[in-house]
Amino acid sequence: MQNSNDFSNRHNKIYFFQQEEPLKELITTTKKHLSMFNFVGDCNTRHNYDCKPQLNYIAGAFFLIGLIGICFRSIRNYLKSPYLWILPLGLFFTLLPGILASEGAPHALRTIGVIPFAFAFAGIGIEIVYQKIKSRKLFFTYGIFVLLVIATVFIGPYHYFIKWPKTNPDFSQNYLSESLFLKQFSDYQKFIVVNVSTGVEEKGFPTTIMTSKYVLWQEFKSGNLTYIYPKNIDEIKNFPKAVIVMMEKDESLANKIREMTESQNLRAYEGGFYAFIVDNNNLK
User: Fold this and answer.
1) Which comes out higher in pLDDT, residue 15 or 156?
2) Gap between the Cα atoms of 84 and 229, Å rounded
3) Which domain range does residue 10 map to?
4) Which pLDDT score is estimated for 21?
5) Do 163 and 23 lie in a common domain?
6) Which of 145, 167, 189 is the last residue of a domain?
7) pLDDT tens for residues 61-103?
8) I want to staple 101 with a disulfide (CB 3.0 to 4.6 A). Which of 14, 72, 94, 174 is the partner?
C-alpha cells in the first residue's frame, strides 16, 4: 500500500481493542447497530437522513416480526431445517464491520452488506402477518395491512428524493479545501469555527466537520486542531500563532475575531471558506 501509515492510523483510531475500555465499547456499538433499523440510525448525513432509523417505521415493524419469526423457527427446527440459520447468521456477520469499530456507530456504510438480510426479514414479516390475517379471515384488517405495505413504497422515496437532497451542504467541496489549506500550517494552532449545523452526530458537532477531521487526524489527535462553536471563540486568544477558519462567512463573528486578535487579515480562499492567519504578536 502507498499510504500504509494512514491505514494504520485509521485502524488504530477505530478498532475497539485499541480503546481504553474495549468491552464497554463493544457492548455500546452492538446495541447501537442492533437498534439502528428501528430507533436511531446513522447520523452522518452522507450515509443517512437525519438520524432516522435505517428502515421506516412500517418496514421496521415487519423486519422485527420477520426476525423474531425466523429465530423461533430456527430454534424449533434446528435439526430438520438448519438452513433457517442462514439469515440470522448473515445479519450478524454483516453487522460485524460496524460493531467492531468504535467510531460513528451505528455506521450505515460499514454495514452495507446487511441490506439484503434486512429486506429479507421485512419481506418475511409481511408474509407472516399476511398469513395470520388470511387464516383468521380478518378482511377489515387485511385492508389496513395492504395500505401499510403500499405506504412503505412511498415513504422511502419521499425521504430519499425530497428530504435528503436538502442536506447537500454536507457534501460541499469547501470542507476538503479548508482541510488542505490548514494542512500547510504545520507549526500553527488550527481552529475551525463551526458556524454551520447539519446532521448533528453523537459527539455534538455536525457531520460537516468529518472531512477535516479525517484529513487532519494527526493534528486533531495531537491537539493542534480544535473545533469550536462561535460562543467559545474566546478560547483562541491564548495562542501566539493560529489559523482560524470559519466554515461560513459571518461578519459579526469576523468582527469579534478581529477585535480579539487585532488582525484584519480575514480572507476568502478559493474553495468557499474564510480564514484568519494570526502570527506571533497579533494577539492581545
Assistant:
1) 156
2) 51
3) 4-167
4) 84
5) yes
6) 167
7) 999 999 999 999 888 887 677 788 999 999 999 999 999 988 7
8) 14
